[in-house]
Amino acid sequence: MKIIQTLINTFKPIDRGVGHGLEFTHKMLDSAMQWLPLTFIIALSPGVTIAILTFINEAPQFLSSNEMPKLLLPTMLPTMMIISATSIGLVFLGYLVTATLLRLKKQISPVTTFRTLNRYAMIVVTVPLFLSFEVADLAKKHPFYVIFLGALIAAIVMIWVYRLAGHRLPRAVSWSISPRWARLITIVVILAAAGTFAWRILELQFIQHQNLRTGNYDLGVYVNTLYNSIHGRFLKCTIVPGGYHIYAHFDPILVLFSPVMLIHPSAETVMITEAVWIALGVIPLYLIAIHHLNRNWFAALLCFSYLLYPAIHGLTMYDFHSLSLAGPFILWAMYFVDTRRYALYFVTLVLLVLTREDLSLIMLFTGFYLFYSKQSLKAGIATIALCLIYFVTVKLTIMATDEQFSYEYYFDRLEIGKRGLLESIIITVLTNPLYIARGALIEGKLVYLLQLLVPLLGLPLLAGKRLWICFYGLVVTALVTRQALYSIAFQYATFLYPFFFALTPLVVKNLEASSFFKKFGLHYRKSVAAIAAGIFVSTLCLSYNYGVFHETSAFRAGHSAFNRNPTPAMIERYRSVEKVKAIIPADASLSASLFVGVHFAAREQFYQFKHLNNTDYYLVLDRDVQDKKIRPKYKKFLNEMDYDLIFSENGIKLFIKQELNQGRHKVLRINRNIR
Mean pLDDT over residues 230-249, rounded? Predict the structure, then answer.
């Protein structure tokens, strides 16, 4: 009875006069509107969560047809209403009981109690929002919605963290630790996370490799290049036109990485090298964050976000590319720029331009920033000179042959008649800028930029003059017409992502002095905590939809879809590949088709099947020779070249030159009259 009387007294006007009653009612309504809407949403969230878990299997059907809502609503709606009503009732009852008890014991008003409970409980709202990601193909078909939802969840978490950041932990759960030990523990945790990333992503890479979804282009190219380089044939690659990789890209850094082939000459070794190297990017990223903010927990969350970043998953899972190696180098370069250690910066810059010739153009704008911002005029001029001289020298001497591969088709939409690409771009920019803008604002490019920026809350865009270092990547993204260059499934995200990560701690540091914080009276320390949480949660949401660690139809490794659950047929097919490895001698010359040859690329003489070289062995995968461009070559090979079929299993066929066979292997029959 005492509790009931307290409730009555709480909401009972002191003065029963009409004027005072109206004034009190107005105050009550005004106060209620401050906490009631959020309370209602919080109360509804558990019910929505249960409803989503109950009907998640029907959700794809519900969204795929106009007729499905009419068929499913009669069965779903009553259940959902009951669940939601129960959730609202229970939560409101809990709020009222808590408010009453606090009113009795500590004389705390119900309004204050409701607001306090909302402050702690608002995180519950994110649960049903996150569960909506489970709708099949949602990320693939509705990328803008998924990205917006991830940003919304991050925003809610940021508000929640900001409100709680000023509260001290109880003594029972708080502890004191020296800064030195805190940093050491943070580094150990980050390195453990990096190791876990490399281990897990390698497991998935090996699945992709054993499913025969990695190819001669590009993994086989680099396996052959590294193998030849460690044996003294620097950058030689028999699989590409001209016989050297320099005709496609000049990347002598591969010579420095080639000793890994002494451990075990195989594609798997190359994959391990790439995954470990990219994972070690957390070291310079940690140092950048510590330099600007000196907060271990911020640096740790930023490094975790790096390891969850969908673009890093895409480029790591897509075969191997020298451009992918540039990410950690760029982070080191940015760290040395931030700390003004220019000697180490130029050492890193040399390693960067040796990684690929076009990286000199990317770093050119770092030099421009150093000069334009007057941070270091000498370093800026030296960077610009080094990058320009290196690029021109490489292009006009080392790569200047008839075998040089042209990448102008990446920009074919901008070519004007027989004019050169650069001339065409300049003319188009000056005479028809709207045409450039239209190409830059297509849906695919906007999604790509959002996938890169939203995990970092768009903070790199606030970098001011420092944003010049991203100029090359942003311009290329705006101008290209080849879809691979604006997709997180390929290595080209390296043009932007390391710069975005390097800029983020600097922007957060500069926010303290911004007029925005002063205008709205925001507390900087609490804001940093909120931003760190927002970056991690936003990255987690996008990684859940576009990363490799969670199974999702939206993830792609380059051109190929990823099947993390090999079928029995795939497993048996790879066993056949292992049998073939035991047949072909390591020093034999081999021609192989696209998706099976990469398993044998670690040899001196390795060629694409379509070139029909006179090699000791020929290896084909039936799926590869069904291609309309390869099928005539296969027909010619069967009918005109003297080879015996000695192995045929699970769609894999191995041929040996007749003069080498001489009864060593049993000859199998094959239909040579294919159409």
Answer: 89
Query: For residue 26, what pLDDT is reported?
Result: 45
CA dihedral for 221, 226, 227, 232, sign (positive or negative): positive
Look over the chain and give the mean of its residue pLDDT values, rounded to a whole number: 86
Smallest CA-to-CA distance from 219 within 311, 316, 356 is with 316
pLDDT for residue 8 is more than 70: no
pLDDT band (50, 70, 90) for residue 1? very low
> Per-residue pLDDT averaged across 523-550, rounded?
94
Task: Provide the token pair at 654.
Answer: 């191995």
245-to-107, 152, 224, 670 alpha-carbon distances in Å: 78, 46, 10, 36
Is the pLDDT score of 174 beyond 50?
A: no
- Residue pointed to by tokens 């865009």: 461
Give the domain-ending residue among 136, 156, 191.
Answer: 136
Q: Is 619 helix (H, G, I), strand (E, B) or coil?
A: strand
Asked if the peptide bond before residue 218 counts as cis, ω within 30 degrees of 0, the response is yes
Domain contains 306: yes
Query: Nearest Cα to 118, choosing from 29, 35, 22, 187?
Result: 35
pLDDT in tens, 447-496: 999 999 999 999 999 999 999 999 999 999 999 988 999 999 999 999 99
Residue 574 belongs to what domain range?
568-661
**Three-class SS state of 668:** strand
Same domain, 503 and 614: no
Give the predicted TM-score (pTM) of the model.
Answer: 0.90
319 & 419 share domain: yes
Give the chain's domain count: 3
| 464 and 329 belong to one structural domain | yes
CA 167 distance to own-chain centroid: 34
Q: Are residues 573 and 549 part of one domain?
A: no
C-alpha to C-alpha distances, 399 to 170, 238, 265, 395, nearest whole angstrom: 66, 17, 28, 5
Assess whether 186 and 292 both reside in one domain.
yes
Bridge partners of 343, per DSSP, are none
Cβ 149 vs Cβ 129: under 8 Å: yes
Alpha carbon distance, N-terminus to C-terminus of the chain: 93
Provide φ and ψ at 399, rounded to 5°. Answer: -100, 0
Pairing of strands 590-592, 606-608: parallel
Of 15-19, 248-252, 298-302, the least confident: 15-19
Largest CA distance in the chain: 115
Q: 556, 590, 608: which is the final residue of a domain? A: 556
Whether residue 593 sits in one domain with residue 521: no
| 584 and 541 belong to one structural domain | no
